[in-house]
Design a protein that fits this description.
Strand content: 5-15%
CATH topology: Rossmann fold
Number of domains: 1
Radius of gyration: 15 Å
Structural class: alpha/beta
Shape: globular
Largest sheet: 6 strands, parallel
CATH superfamily: HAD superfamily/HAD-like
Order of helices and strands: EHEHHEHHEHEHEH
């Protein structure tokens, strides 16, 4: 039986934006993230983090270091009563590793989670702080919300100036979760 998901960008959406977060001790959840994720999980949504991690391709950190960061993310969320269903990441960057099908805006990470977790893309959402997050979700039929945390506020303005306003915006993840839960 398929279920809906909320696909979540990591940096700037769940945690404070840090250029190339490379150390677990630098991971800091944004306010109200735990409560927002808990409400989505209680409503039956799978919680899937989808994150571009080009710092690996750039040699700024290793897969082992990324695993430690994600272990810390799990610990911080568990302390708030939240369990993620999956974390998908793209270690590539076209300038260093060539093209791939997983780096957002490509939908590869989302499609992998859909297959692995038996998710319903048409009933799903993506929440992130960049246009590429929303584009990845749109590519699989998910609805999107741009949060104004991280680089989201500047991104929303850039998108408006380019004539491509985001389909939905929210001040933060908690407001995005409330919007998702208000939709049938």
């Amino acid at each position: 039986m398929t279920r809906p998901a909320v696909f979540l960008d990591r940096d700037g959406t769940l945690n404070r934006e840090v250029d190339y977060l490379a150390r677990p001790e630098d991971l800091e959840l944004l306010p109200r993230v735990g409560a927002a994720l808990r409400s989505l999980a209680e409503a039956g949504f799978a919680l899937v983090v989808v994150t571009n991690q080009s710092g690996i391709a750039r040699g700024l950190f290793t897969l082992t270091e990324l695993a430690l960061i994600h272990e810390r993310l799990h610990e911080l969320l568990a302390a708030q009563g939240v369990e993620l269903d999956a974390i998908e990441f793209c270690p590539h960057h076209p300038e260093f590793t060539g093209p791939c099908t997983c780096r957002k805006p490509a939908p590869g990470m989302l499609l992998r989670a859909v297959a692995d977790l038996d998710l319903d893309p048409a009933a799903s959402w993506i929440v992130g702080d960049s246009e590429r997050d929303l584009a990845a979700g749109r590519a699989i039929g998910a609805r999107g919300i741009l949060v104004l945390t991280g680089k989201g506020e500047a991104e929303a303005e850039r998108m408006r100036r380019a004539g491509r306003p985001p389909e939905g915006t929210a001040p933060d993840l908690a407001a995005a979760a409330a919007s998702i839960l208000a939709h049938p």
